[in-house]
Amino acid sequence: MKIPILQLKNILLASIQVDLTDEDALEFQSDVLRKAAETDAAGIIIDITALDVVDSFMARILNETATMAQLLGAEVVISGMQPAVALTLVEMGRELTHVKTALNLDQGLEKLNNCIAAKNGIVTPREGNRRDND
Amino acid sequence: MTKKTMEIKNQRDVIAARQAIREMANNLGLGLADQTRLATAISELTRNVIQYAGEGTCIISDESDQTTLRIRAVIEDHGPGIPDVDQALADGFSTGNGLGAGLPGARRLVQDFNLESKPGHTKVTIEMIRRKW
Q1: How many structural domains is chain B composed of?
Q2: Given an 8 Å threshold on Cβ–Cβ distance, is A93 in contact with B47?
Q3: pLDDT in tens, B17-39
Q4: Which residue among A13, A38, A67, A133 has its CA within the 20 to 30 Å range from the CA of A100?
Q5: A134 within some domain
């Protein structure tokens, strides 16, 4: 199961629409990183609205992908986590510690753009609130 | 009472198992949070089967009575077994993939958790128990 990764200017957008096997998740991770390097992406949004289970393996993949992308110079935002998934992850003692998250794709894009602008030294109106998002 | 036995042989079976228990939980009227807890716990436990034993079984059953809603899952394999059960249940411990949240994580999501393991046989039984109103 290949997850399409779309490019919007300097941002990559991937929406995970199906339950991934562990192998699929690992393949997705390397695809995202390769594409980030190829396109010189400034940011990556991974939308997980359709995922109704994020177990410890998937959480680790998302965490690692964000950390790896940061090493390549790209910021990562995970958007659309379902409330029940968030609840379950925290109860299990898992969190997405290295990743910025957003309620939905719209807010995710805004957060990512603010993040990229801040990194490039451009002050945005939301700059003052940025500490909340980190 | 409904009961379903599933072979766990590959990663597709892990996904099928968690979908099956979610469906059962949904049919019994459990909410989204409980459905997700169960599906996630099954995901962790059946992944362990693939990872450590190669294959096994997962049996899910509705054990409810008049006052209590009870979903049970029994996950069994004939792999090498867990040498130190207490250690395996401690947070941060894992021999397989450096994850350390599989067993203790799954345990936190359900009301009843029982793990028996010896070389050649590992059996995990979990139950989600909710009072009927």
Answers
A1: 1
A2: no
A3: 999 999 999 999 999 999 999 99
A4: A38
A5: no
What whole-number distance in Å separates Cα of residue B111 and Cα of residue B126? 8
- Residue A13 forms beta bridges with which residues? A6, A45
> Which of B11, B40, B97 is closest, CB to CB, to A21?
B11
In a domain, A51, yes or no: yes
Percent of chain A with pLDDT over 90: 78
Tally of structural domains, chain A:
1
Residue A80 in any domain: the answer is yes
**3-class DSSP assignment, residue A27:** helix
CB pairs under 8 A between A and B: 66
Look up the CATH number of the domain holding residue A22. 3.30.750.24
What is the chain A residue with the closest CA to B37? A88
Q: What CATH number did the domain enclosing B127 receive?
A: 3.30.565.10
Q: Which of B37, B15, B118 is nearest to A18 (CA)?
A: B15
| Full domain range(s) for residue B58 | 3-131
CA–CA gap between residue B127 and residue A13 (Å, rounded): 39
Contact assignment for A54 to B19 by CB distance below 8 Å: no
Residue pair A5/A13 in contact by the 8 Å Cβ criterion: yes
Contact A91 B108 (CB under 8 A): yes
Contact B101 A19 (CB under 8 A): no
Eight-class DSSP state of A48:
-
- Domain span at residue A32 reads 5-129
ipTM value for the complex: 0.89
Q: CA-to-CA distance for B41 and B37, rounded, in angstroms?
A: 6
